[in-house]
């Protein structure tokens, strides 16, 4: 039995007994979609963000910076991409993290592996993907996201593009690692308390986007004809993946609001690789983050980064479609 069977039963009861609708009607299908997905996603979000928030007490940014400093081989890219999954990141922290990593001795390519992985494969994305698409899709998405972060960072590192980092970065005094190392030791109870605080903070900041996204997804699920979506972005359209990525690159939307919509689109016949590649583009190449990164990257390096990521996400979309068919 599914761990979320109770939510499904409650949603069905609301549709049939409270609203007096059929589950196969447009409105009934939309209501069931909404009242099943909201508690399911919220439960996973709270649980996973608590777990990750607790783990983050061992992986503060300054500790990560010291750990990754000087690792110039692909091992550094692998470690940076994996650590990026469980450390805090948002667009507003991109520049401070970028400067701190470089001044702390972290190579440019390794820094990019972290900056790609952290926003694209975070606890919110994992919780939503697990709740909406199941473990298999979530594991595949995480594997592809981490692999893309490793590959893109490795390529940027091999190209040795430090000359295209704004010069003022290298003139900032180096980070005093010893001064930042003096962080108090926490008990397991205190770490769990920090995890709960982090979970409440994340939940409080994203729940409106989740409800809104699921609401839009419910409307698509109940009312948008399947043949309309299949005609423009179905598996018969060989260019659906690059179109989805190119549309997503200049946009910005909270992943909490995008993923419920992608679930509804996938339910209407849009291939998973197409909708998830769109999500990757929105998350990893958001316009606000590119504007912020422009403060520390020259246009040439920013263009290389966008080109590598765009090509990589398109490739991931096609591969995802091939594996999930």
How would you characterize the overall build of this protein?
Helix content is 75%, strand content 0%. The chain has 325 residues and is mainly α. Helix 4 packs across helix 8 (135-159). It has one domain. It has 17 helices and no strands. The longest helix is centred in the middle third of the chain and has 36 residues, at 188-223.
Topology:
Layout: H1 5-18, H2 26-55, H3 61-68, H4 74-85, H5 94-103, H6 108-120, H7 123-133, H8 135-159, H9 168-171, H10 177-181, H11 188-223, H12 226-233, H13 240-248, H14 255-267, H15 272-284, H16 287-293, H17 299-324
- Return Rg in Å: 21 Å
Number of helices: 17
Straight-line N-to-C gap: 25 Å
Mean pLDDT: 80
Shape: globular
Stretches where pLDDT falls below 50 for ≥5 residues? 177-181
Largest sheet: none
Please tally the β strands and state the result: 0
* Amount of beta strand: under 5%
* Helix/strand order: HHHHHHHHHHHHHHHHH
Q: Structurally, how many domains make up the residues?
A: 1
Quick structural overview:
The protein contains 17 helices and no strands.
List keywords for this structure.
325 residues; mainly alpha; 17 helices; 0% strand; globular
